[in-house]
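Problem statement: downstream parser choked on a complex file, so we are re-checking the raw output for the heme C run. The parser issue turned out to be on our end (a line-ending mismatch), but while we're here, posting the original submission so the record is complete.
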Amino acid sequence: MICRKKPSRFLLLLLALVAALPSPVAHSAVKRRDEEKAGAILFRDKGCPYCHGDGGVGTKKAPSLASLPKDKTWTPEKITSQILNGGQKMPPFRDSVTDEDVADLIAYLRAKNKPVPHPTATQDSAPALQPQ
Ligand code: HEC
């Protein structure tokens, strides 16, 4: 029987654990595709194409990111560091991305078939929550 007013500590602990653990389906193909799509939008909205070009094709300012999925030296850790800390000419994005953003960007950058973000599918178009 569950007491609503005072959930047992064990239950709380269990809930916290379940929330903290990556769920077994976390990296199912569907979830990964969602991350890739979110990453595609972030890549565009965070201004990465300014240097890396649309879809990361590369410009005079920054190299193409197209070969990243095949390049074993570009581990998720190294990509994370590049995004958070920047590089020689790349600025750090530490202050403008969350951990989740980085995970989505990595999923996008490592995707073999990069999704193209829909022109109107910006985060701004999401319905705003009404303040209570
Ligand atoms: C002001 C220009 C600029 C912007 C904006 C920029 N980059 Fe870069 N990026 C670079 C340059 C230049 C390099 C080459 C290494 C260096 O100098 O840091 C690079 C390298 C990288 C690399 C390593 C690839 C390689 O082969 O060197 C990754 C991954 C990357 N950028 C991701 C991103 C992401 C994701 C964003 C957006 C959040 C972004 N960059 C925004 C300039 C930029």
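For whoever reads this later: Residues 43, 46-48, 50-52, 61-63, 65, 79, 82-83, 87-91, 93, 105, 109 surround heme C (CB under 6 Å).
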